[in-house]
Amino acid sequence: FMNNILSPKRIEDTVHEGTVFGVKKVEITYEGSAKFGDYVIVETQIKKIGTSSITFQHEIFREFDMVLIAKVECVRLAMELKTNKLLNVIDFFTSYL
Fold first, then answer.
1. Residue 79's domain spans which residues?
2. For the Thioesterase domain, which residue ranges apply (predicted)?
3. pLDDT tens-place values along the chain, 97 residues long
4. How many domains does the chain have?
């Protein structure tokens, strides 16, 4: 997601400036398996944008046969690392668009 709106350098700069995207909650349902060396494809959608959080839905597929191996829901927070203050995610991302 971040790579689609920011360059890798800008993401790195954002982290060095003290903004982090902490994980508040992760739910994983395993549907299949992958073994060491398998490539996977991760499809990501934004499920919900709140005041200080974004909820992502991920589906993870084994690349060689496109079998679904996991469904993930992840809530991420935008936060100032120095103060632990939550940031308004809409305001934060608007500054990059």
1. 2-94
2. 18-66
3. 555 555 556 666 776 677 888 899 999 999 999 999 999 999 999 999 999 999 999 999 999 999 999 999 999 998 888 898 999 988 877 766 6
4. 1
